Each structure stands twice: as C-alpha cells, then as structure tokens.
Amino acid sequence: MCTKGRTIANAALSPDGATVAFGAGDRLIAVAAEGGPERVVAFDPAPGAFAWTADGRALAYAAKDRICAVPATGGPGRTLLQADGPITGFALAADGRIAHVVDHRVVHVDGTALPGTADFVFDPTWSPDGRTLVWHEWDVPDMPWDAGRIAAWSPESRRVATVAGGDGFSVQQPRFSPDGSRLAFLSDATGWLNVWMAGPDGSHARPVLDEPFEHADPAWWPGQRSYCWSPDGTALVLNRNEGGFGRLVRIGVPGTGAPGAPGTPVELRKGVHRSLSWAGPHVAALRSGARTPTEVVVDRTTVAVGPVGGFEPALVEPEPVEWRGHDGGVIHGRLFRAGAAVGRAAPGGNAPLIVQIHGGPTGQNQVVFDAKTSFWLDRGWAVLVPDFRGSTGWGREYQQALRGRWGELDTADVAAGMQAAADNGWADPRRMVPMGGSSGGMTVLLLLALHPELCAAGVASYPVVDLADLARSEYRFEAHYTHSLIGPFPATRKAHRDRSPLAHIDRITKPMLVFHGTADEVVPVRQSRKLVRRLRDRGADVEHVEYEGEGHGFRGPAHVEDQLSRTEAWLAAKVLGFPQ
Hints:
The protein is an alpha+beta fold. The chain has 9 helices and 36 strands.
C-alpha cells in the first residue's frame, strides 16, 4: 500500500479559463486546462495563497511577509509588497491595488491599515470595479463558526460597515458576482451552512439554496472556496456535504434569466470538491473521494494528481451508519469494512476496528482520500469514523451541541459508537482501538480512562491532556476556544480540570502509544510529556515517540512513514497478539 505522494492545494483557473494553477508543496505549478505537461512557475518556501492578475499574464502569491508576482509562463519574479508581518491572505483589485491581511487580524490596502477593530480577519475580496472591499471577521471569545460578520470598506467612505452576519450565526466566504450587482456568502442563519445572496451592500439577503446540507467546511483556515460564480453571473457551482460524502452541484441564480428552475440543484459530479473556480467554459476544483487520491480536475478531466495513484481498485467506499447516544440522540458516522484481507478477522468473521476520531473538535473527517485509512484497510482493519455531536456537516444545532460539554458529550458519543460496533457485528469487540490527534487524541485518552471495557489499546497524537494549560495557551487563533466548549477561564477552572485526561490518568490501564512534535505551538509537547511521566510512574504500558521539529500534525515524509510503521508493529504486538 503506497502512502507517498505530493500534497496539492488551492487550484485556480486563469481569467480566460485556458490554464489552471495549483500549489504543490513548495512549488506553484501551471498546466493547460485540457491537460498536458506541468510547468513550475515559482519555487518558494511557502507559496501559500495565490491569485491570477486581471490580465492572466502573471500569478501573485504570498510568501511569509511578501507578496510576489511571477509570469504565468515562468521566469524571474518580483516583489509587489513587503508587509510588517506574516501575510495570511490577500486580494488583487482589477487596477492592481492589493489588499492583504497580516497575522489574521489587520486589513491593509497598499500598505495602509484600515480602521477595522475585529479580532480576526479572513478572505479580503474586491468588487469587480474596485470600489468595495469585503472580508470575513469575528471577535473573541467566539470562534468563526460561532458568530461572525461580513464587513465592507470603500475608498470613498473610508469606514468599515457590517453588511451580513451578527450574533447567533456564522458567515464566511464573501464573493461578488462578476458584474458586482450581487454579493454571495455562506451563512448558517437557517440552521445549515448554505450559500446566500444579497445586494452588493448586503440588502435583501436570502439563501440561494435553502436545504439541510452544508456547503462549506468550518472556517479553520482562510482561502476556502467551496462555491464559485459562473462568468456571466447566472449560476453558482458549490460542493454539497451529504453526510460526509461530497457532491458538486450547479444552481441557477434567481432573477438572472438562468436556464432551468432557479434554485434547483443539478448534479455535476460526485466527490468532495474544494478550491472551486469557474472561468471561460471551464470549472476547476480539487477533487477527492475514498477511492480517489486528491486531483486537480477541470470539468471531467484530471489534469494533475497528488498522491501516487494506481492502487484505487483496492480501496473501498464507507457506508453511512447511525447509533443512539446515551441520551437517545442520533449520532452519525461512516464505516469502512475491508474484510479479512490478511487473515486477521476473528473466528466469527469480524475484523479488528480502528475508531478514527477527528480533531477540532469542530470538524469532520469527510469522505476524501486518506492514505492512513487506506493503510489500515489494506492490513485487514475496519475503520469507524464517528461524527460525535460537535462535528460539522450536520447543521448548526448538531455542531453547537458541544458548547460547554467538551470532554463529556464527544467522549460519550464515540463510546456509544464503539458499543454499536460491538452490538451490530461491525467489528471484533475485543479488538477496538480509538485513534486520534489533538482534540481527537484527548477523546482517545478519555475513552481509555472512562470506557476501558471498549478499548483494547489507544493511539494518541499530540493530544490535549490538560485543558487549563490549553486555556492559558499563547497560540492566538485558539486562545479562547475552551471559553465556549467548557466555559470562561479561570471562572470554570474546576470544569477544565475535571474534563481533562490529566484528572483521569490513574484510570488508564490499557496499552497506549503517544506521538508528539517538539515544535507544536497549538498543544505544546509538555502536555504529552506530563501524561507519559505520570503513566510510567505507576508502571503503565505506554510508548512515547517525539518527532524533532514537527508542529501540530506531522508533515515530514520520514516521520509520517515512521508513525505508520511503528503503529502497525505496536498494534500487532499489543492487540493482534503476534509480533510484526
């Protein structure tokens, strides 16, 4: 089973639709929309976000504290702008003016800071005529999926105004129609994160497609493009999340003379589609699925691939599953079953089970290509992917259900899923292993402590061990995260302590494998060191691995490969009962 390959991201068509550019590691690459040889346009330590210039002759990209431009055909680049801090987003106006965001917090236009006062800012976007700049903003202690605003600024007024959003619902991804007569954005004001449309000043806002499906991921990062306008402004294409499965659909825009019934979705293609753009006759996206490694697609043509392909026939699609929580609530998930591929099934035919718990905890493991899941399926494991309450993809009420209950409700919901796996014959109940990173790693620890009867062992990567320590974190983006998930700190110090795995370490008796990076700024490595020290002091079975220089998530190919091979050998010895 091959797990190697490049990571591709952030694809975008040129204004005429003839060329698509995308990021691949530390390279910016361009390829013809019909396919053909790739050409490297730029090398840079961190190309990050990029944009085509209005004439399509060049690509501008952010690189740390600079914005650079390079000819689309390749060649020497030049610096367009030098910022006073890390650039986390930018936008080019048709006349060449540059709006950029420094450290997620201050919007600048041509180097001058605008008068906004928001704590966080994502995704500046110019109107086609360059007379209005809009962006997504929010204030602490909210996270962007709790509440936020679409703000607007114009050179004429020189003031910032709110045109969408407010308390009690979230917004994101503002984007003008090609003629500037409409402003689209995402909002969950109806209970589901759908695409909305308004006048350019935010007036007469309404959903384009009001449905019980979500049209975007939570705003963990800037630059998300889960929908796009047609060049003539009569239609939108968006990615619909159907219980973790993706579907690309086309929507006619009411009042534009669009063909067909406005607001009626037309399926274009299955799969999770991100980084959408529409130019000329073409729609481009990054597409992925359980059996499809991430690829750059233009219409129905694959023009570039990420991970090495060729093994897709051995992969499997998951099946949607549901179970009841301890309080009777319906919990959703997806189950991968590969069968007894290498003879590791129990006598009754049930395979051992990995319970893959997503991080966040506000997030979801959608049905995209995941080399790690494929790795375990190839070795005869079944994989359960739970969407505990607090996960996204199931509407605002489901996602907000974790407020004040982190460490409690998520743990109970996953435990109920593991019990359902045992009761329904999804897997061998004696060989179930929770596995997760960050918040998911915290859930692993709490399952081992509070539900040991369900766990044969546990694997936690960069886990949250001490919630009070996390609440005092200096990592700015998540500095107030526990405020909504547990309560204001230090007023809720006791709840932070009681919900922490640190308070329950003495109850962990099953074998544990813990991974952490030494340069992690989100969950410092000291948390895992404290956990392991306490476990070893009482003679617990724990193995601890640190990767030098890795942050929150492992990106070095050697480290990723080592983690998988080390985990496979450890599970073989501790759970399957034979040495690897």
